[in-house]
């Protein structure tokens, strides 16, 4: 019952602050926070308010909008949980992709595949980026997947290795070209991605 009361209080505050959001979106936020451990860490009310604050700041700082950020986060939540990505990091990723004009469905598929590749194809990625294999595995073991993602994107972009990015991501059929375009867009805006994730964490 206390969790229901906390959700109700946080929802009222958040819906007043963020006109774009509706009750369905807030339910998605609550589920995401539970999945990624924010609810256990902060409690229902504070986790929702913290997430809403991040979304508000991200929307104000760029061309990103609240609803696409939440839609992206909802779609990648399962993989994010496996990769130890925080809610703030997922929101920063979503805001970056929306701000640079990437479709939510294509973005979520590409990021999910790329994140999985970081966890399962570390040796190949290390070889192709000049990173040490131990560094790649250490970063994933320590839950620093977002930092690793930014580093890999930066290196692939500077080395011109993005045309082969889908080899890490398995057979994607007709989605391969769209996935490559999404990851290429992220790599071309890696500084902006880093800034958005940092902003989300501070909010």
Fold and architecture overview:
- By secondary structure, the chain is mainly α.
- The chain contains twelve helices and no strands.
- Helix 2 (23-35) packs parallel to helix 5 (66-82) and helix 4 runs antiparallel to helix 12 (190-202).
- The relative contact order is 0.13.
Radius of gyration over alpha carbons?
A: 17 Å
Q: What's the β-strand tally?
A: 0
The rounded distance between the terminal residues' Cα atoms is 28 Å
Given helix and strand content, the structural type is mainly alpha
Apparent shape: globular
Order of helices and strands: HHHHHHHHHHHH
User: The biggest beta sheet, please?
Assistant: none
Mean model confidence by pLDDT: 84
Beta percentage is: under 5%
Q: Summarize the amount of helix as a percent range.
A: over 70%
Number of contiguous helices: 12
Point out poorly predicted stretches: none
Which terms summarize this structure?
203 residues, mainly alpha, 12 helices, globular
Topology:
Blueprint: H1 2-17, H2 23-35, H3 38-42, H4 44-61, H5 66-82, H6 87-99, H7 104-120, H8 122-129, H9 133-141, H10 145-159, H11 176-188, H12 190-202
Helix pairs in contact: 1-4, 2-4, 2-5, 4-6, 4-12, 5-6, 5-7, 6-12, 7-11, 8-9, 10-11
Give a brief outline of the structure.
The chain has 203 residues and is mainly α. It contains 12 helices and no strands.
């Amino acid at each position: 019952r206390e969790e229901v009361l906390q959700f109700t209080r946080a929802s009222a505050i958040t819906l007043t602050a963020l006109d774009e959001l509706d009750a369905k979106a807030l339910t998605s936020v609550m589920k995401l926070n539970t999945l990624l451990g924010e609810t256990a860490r902060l409690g229902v009310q504070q986790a929702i308010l913290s997430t809403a604050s991040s979304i508000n700041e991200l929307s104000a700082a760029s061309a990103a909008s609240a609803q696409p950020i939440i839609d992206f986060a909802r779609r990648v939540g399962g993989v994010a949980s496996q990769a130890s990505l925080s809610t703030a990091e997922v929101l920063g990723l979503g805001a970056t992709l929306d701000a640079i004009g990437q479709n939510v469905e294509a973005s979520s598929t590409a990021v999910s595949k790329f994140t999985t590749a970081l966890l399962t194809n570390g040796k190949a990625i290390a070889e192709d980026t000049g990173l040490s294999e131990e560094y790649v595995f250490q970063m994933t073991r320590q839950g620093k997947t977002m930092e690793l993602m930014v580093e890999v994107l930066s290196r692939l972009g500077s080395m011109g290795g993005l045309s082969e990015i889908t080899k890490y991501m398995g057979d994607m059929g007709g989605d391969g070209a769209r996935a490559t375009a999404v990851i290429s867009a992220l790599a071309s805006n890696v500084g902006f991605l880093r800034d958005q994730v940092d902003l989300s964490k501070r909010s």
